[in-house]
Write a structure and sequence with these properties.
The complex is a heterodimer. Chain A is mainly alpha-helical. Chain A contains 13 helices and eight strands. In chain A, about 65% of the residues lie in helices and about 10% in strands. Chain A has a two-stranded antiparallel ribbon. In chain A, strand 1 and strand 2 (about 165-175) form a beta hairpin. By secondary structure, chain B is mainly alpha-helical. In chain B, about 55% of the residues are buried. The chains are: A mainly alpha, B mainly alpha.
């Protein structure tokens, strides 16, 4: 295998693992701000209990986001040296701004958020939480701007740079704000934020639904679930509008990507939109497709009989994105998005009927639906990035000629060999698998322990973690009609006493 | 105004900030087993608990600033030192998760495992940082385009290893002094013994490294001919070093900490002075070196970044001050601690 393919695999592995955490911390951050704000406003201790509980989970996710994030920053240089030389003037500034404006803010106040409960007053603590949430959002701004610039470059010129008599071309900023507000950055950023809110909300609903099903922490779980449901509903509906806006941007700025997203191999009138399908890149057809005829033409061009540019319209110099993976990732994201809308609206229907917490099947669905939220966030980025191929930085088309741009196949590190990258892929694979297992284990541990809302006796000495979660069995009306039985005991209850 | 020089200095500030702040974190990590039981190790871990993450951001920002201001140097160093960066990443990942995970379960075998991981990863990161500095002092083979040629293993001779050892001793001294400010009782007595051990090892290695540098790397002292005033840095460095045992003996630990921080800052300063105007020195073909002029971003970007730094840095110092103030004094273990 060659260095390019291995470097791409490594980037895919490390960025996808990293991206489990940032949207979760952004989403949970907003929820923490809400909870602490409500506590300051109402003085109802349940909000403080909830904030303390979610802070513990936030802290675990944050730590993993930080360590996997450092890998990303270094990887541009270690594996994509030519790319770094080409974009450093533009991309580097955004990354440095992220360090100065976002990371210091987050890390400075994170310590107050996590360790400061008994050291600073509630108002200061609220301020710290707010700053951590803002820091998370700031960092998403800079990195998304940098990515968007790769998709739709603006505000730069191509200039020759000389090193010891060797001349090469690179991108240099001439208009900072045009670079920041390049054609796709605002839309993408909103899409990323809403995706993070959906994930945060589904994460909260998942854990709350599990408590409801187990008959534990009833009041806490009910309120958390409804709060999460409210955020999820608003975010899922907003994401529909944002997604449509995103697709319009792709039509305008990256027609080649649109063709890959929708599997448009040939330019023809009444281009269909697929609900699902199996693109066959050799035969240039979408097999087993469920499609709405003319719908893509209507959405992209406003007319059902218009022709949408297909992959056949691309000049020979352009190259082609991998269609199968781009198509599937895109359709997976949309299917998840539609499921979010459907499931939240259904939950409100039962809520309105007053039977939401008796619908055990629906609660079970929400226990696992968080996986769809993770999948949607990941899949969205997969189709954004594979759809950009074969370019790492998109070229601009001037009078039919390609200007600028950098191909992925030319952007790797000259000084690195395939064996080295293979070695580091194995290294990251093993380390991340270990981190993933520990993350799941510790999440499970914290969730089993639950919030300290006084409904369960806790052994906080930490020295003798024994089965201490005395289940509250005095709430037969809590979830369905089934009282919790012995078989339902979570397997890990024997270790649920949280250690200090 | 020489914007290239300004960014060279600013990178030096970020590097010095990182070396001082994460220096004591790493030193505390190496000294973790000075704590004999779980309670003592918790105190050691929590001495850096609320601040280590912020300290590491200095490294992240240094990386980002190098990328933005000198992309050629960033690309050459990071891709050239591929295996070394993977080792650093591994060490930083394991260090962070050992801090985060250790306290989550009470089982002795769990805690012991993370204790070992925490200590070893701190040691590994320190060694690699030191070796990297030593290798940068010596220079690495570059082609005329400024791309690393050759293998990493071939770069690893006695000099970079010596600087690696010096860095370990320096961070042990620095970390022990920090820890002496944060502990009390019997643990404090043991930590104080380590401040002396660290200092003596540092002093010995400092002398050996200085002699080795002056005799084997002529380039490192060449700049003194153009700028004799820089002898002042050496003098200040010696004074800072001399003040460490003086203040330790008088039990002025805060002053000792400031002296060891100043020692680190001045050593970073001398490192920059020896490199200037190179970012990556090419050896044996010195003309192939990447300098602050040929490896930089455009002037426009350097100016823009200066504005970003000017706006951002006061805030950074503000947050850092708030955090250190909130968690000042001896370590207090409560239920939110690691």
């Amino acid at each position: 295998m060659d260095v390019v393919l291995l470097s791409r695999l490594q980037f895919a592995l490390t960025i996808m693992f990293h991206y489990l955490f940032p949207p979760l911390t952004i989403g949970l951050g907003v929820i923490l701000v809400f909870l602490e704000g409500r506590f300051l406003w109402t003085k109802d201790p349940i909000y403080e209990t909830a904030a303390r509980f979610w802070t513990k989970i936030f802290g675990l996710n944050f730590a993993l986001g930080v360590v996997t994030g450092i890998v990303m920053e270094f990887e541009f240089g270690t594996n994509w040296a030519v790319y770094s030389r080409y974009v450093g003037d533009v991309f580097g500034s955004a990354l440095a701004a992220e360090g100065i404006f976002a990371f210091f803010l987050e890390s400075g106040f994170l310590s107050l958020l996590i360790f400061g409960w008994d050291r600073v007053g509630p108002k200061m603590h609220f301020f710290a939480t707010l700053m951590v949430a803002v820091g998370g959002i700031f960092s998403s701004i800079w990195i998304t701007v940098a990515n968007s610039w790769q998709q739709t470059p603006a505000g730069h010129v191509l200039r020759e740079h000389t090193i010891n008599g060797n001349v090469f071309v690179r991108a240099e900023i001439v208009d900072f704000w045009a670079m920041v507000f390049n054609p796709s950055s605002v839309g993408r950023l909103i899409h990323v934020w809403i995706g993070a809110f959906i994930l945060g909300a589904y994460f909260v609903m998942s854990i709350s639904a599990w408590y409801l099903l187990r008959g534990r922490h009833h009041e806490f779980a009910k309120r958390s679930f409804v709060g999460g449901l409210l955020l999820a509903t608003v975010a899922a509906l907003a994401q529909l509008a944002s997604g449509h806006n995103q697709a319009e941007g792709v039509v305008r700025n990256q027609p080649a990507k649109l063709a890959a997203l929708e599997g448009v191999f040939h330019t023809e009138p009444e281009t269909p939109m697929y609900i699902c399908g199996w693109p066959d890149e050799e035969a240039e057809v979408v097999r087993y497709g469920v499609k709405i005829p003319g719908m893509l033409s209507f959405l992209a061009k406003g007319k059902f009989d218009a022709a949408v540019d297909g992959l056949d319209k691309l000049g020979p110099t352009w190259g082609r994105a991998p269609v199968w993976i781009t198509f599937q990732a895109y359709h997976l994201m949309i299917a998840c998005g539609m499921t979010f809308i459907g499931s939240t609206l259904l939950a409100w229907f039962f809520y309105w009927r007053g039977t939401l917490f008796k619908q055990r099947w629906l609660l079970w669905f929400f226990v696992f639906a968080v996986l769809l939220a993770f999948a949607a966030n990941e899949a969205g980025w997969v189709c954004a990035e594979t759809g950009r191929q074969p370019w790492i930085v998109y070229p601009t088309v001037v009078d039919g000629q390609l200007v600028g741009g950098l191909r992925t196949s030319e952007a790797f590190s000259e000084a690195v060999e395939a064996e080295q990258v293979l070695g580091s892929i194995i290294f990251f694979g093993v380390v991340y698998l270990l981190l993933f297992c520990l993350w799941i284990m510790l999440l499970h541990n914290k969730i089993s322990h639950g919030p300290d809302d006084g409904t369960e006796k806790k052994d906080d000495s930490g020295e003798a973690p024994t089965g201490t979660s005395t289940r509250r069995s005095s709430s037969p009306d809590s979830v369905g009609s089934k009282p919790p039985s012995a078989e339902e005991a979570p397997p890990s209850d024997s270790t649920s006493g949280e250690a200090q | 105004m020489d914007w290239h020089l300004l960014w060279f200095v600013l990178l030096g500030v970020l590097l010095a900030g990182y070396a001082i702040l994460d220096g004591f974190d790493l030193g505390v990590g190496i000294l973790h087993f000075v704590g004999r039981d779980d309670q003592e190790r918790r105190i050691i871990l929590n001495s850096i608990g609320p601040i280590w993450d912020g300290n590491e951001v200095w490294l992240v920002t240094f990386g980002g600033a190098l990328f933005a201001a000198f992309p050629e140097a960033y690309a050459t160093i990071f891709s050239g030192y591929y295996a070394a960066f993977m080792a650093v990443l591994g060490a930083l990942i394991f260090r962070a998760v050992s801090i985060e995970f250790r306290s989550k379960l009470a089982a002795p075998v769990w805690r012991k495992t993370w204790d070992i991981v925490f200590s070893l990863s701190s040691l590994l990161a320190t060694i690699v940082f030191g070796v990297a500095v030593g290798s940068a002092m010596k220079g690495i083979p570059l082609d005329s385009r400024g791309i690393f040629i050759g293998t990493l293993v071939a770069q690893l001779d006695w000099y970079p290893l010596l600087v690696g050892a010096l860095t370990v001793a320096m961070f042990i001294m620095h970390g022990a002094i920090f820890l002496s400010l944060k502990t009390s009782g019997e643990l404090n007595t043991r930590v104080l013994r380590w401040t002396w051990r660290g200092f003596l090892a540092f002093l010995l290695l400092y002398l050996v490294t200085t002699i080795a540098t002056v005799t084997t790397i002529p380039r490192s002292t060449a700049n003194f001919q153009h700028a004799p005033w820089a002898a002042g840095i050496v003098l200040l460095n010696l004074l800072a070093i001399a003040n460490i045992p003086r203040s330790l003996r008088r039990n002025r630990l805060g002053e000792a900490f400031i002296s060891s921080a100043a020692t680190i800052a001045l050593l970073v300063c001398l490192f920059g002075f020896a490199l200037f105007p190179n970012l990556v020195t090419s050896r044996p073909d010195e003309p192939n070196s990447l300098t602050i002029y040929n490896a930089s971003s455009s002037l426009n970007t350097l100016k823009l970044m200066s504005l970003i730094a000017l706006i951002g840095m006061p805030f950074v110092l503000g947050y850092t001050a708030v955090t250190y103030w909130t968690f000042r004094g001896n370590v207090k273990i409560d239920k939110h601690s690691y």
